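Thread title: Can someone regenerate the structure for this chain?

I was given the following input by a collaborator and told the matching C-alpha cells would be attached. They weren't. Posting the sequence so someone can regenerate them.
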Amino acid sequence: MEYLSLLAVSTLFGGMMLYSFGFAPLVFHALDGETAGRFLRAAFPWYYLFVTGCAGFSAFLLAFVDWRPAAGLLVVALTGLAARELLMPRINDARDQDLAGDISAKKRFAWLHGGSVVLNMLQLVGLGAVLYGYA
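Best answer:
Regenerated them for you:
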C-alpha cells in the first residue's frame, strides 16, 4: 500500500506542477487570448477531477499506513472538489460578465482567479510535505 500511495501522490504532484507551470502558460503562449481562455475553460474541469480523484485515491491508500498525511490528502481532494464545483463556475461567470462589459466583474474575476491560484499553491505545498514525509 505504501508504494502505491507514494506513486499516486507523486503522480498528483507532478501532474499539478506540469499543468500549473507548463501546460497553462504554454496554452497562453501558443494561442491567442480568447482561444486560450476557451481552451483552458474546457480543460479545468478535467484538471480538478484529476486532483480530486488522485488525491482521494492517495488518501485512501495512505490511510492504511499513516492517517496524518492521509488527512492532508483528503483536504487536497475536498478543496479540489470545491474548486471544481463552487469556485470554477463563479470564476467563469465573472469572466463572462467582464467580457460583456461589466466593470465590477473584472475585479471579481481577478480576486476569484487569484484565490484559485493561491489554493492551487497551498495544495502543492501540502503534497510536497506529504512527499517529504516519505524521504
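The helical segments are 2-30, 33-63, 67-99, 103-134.
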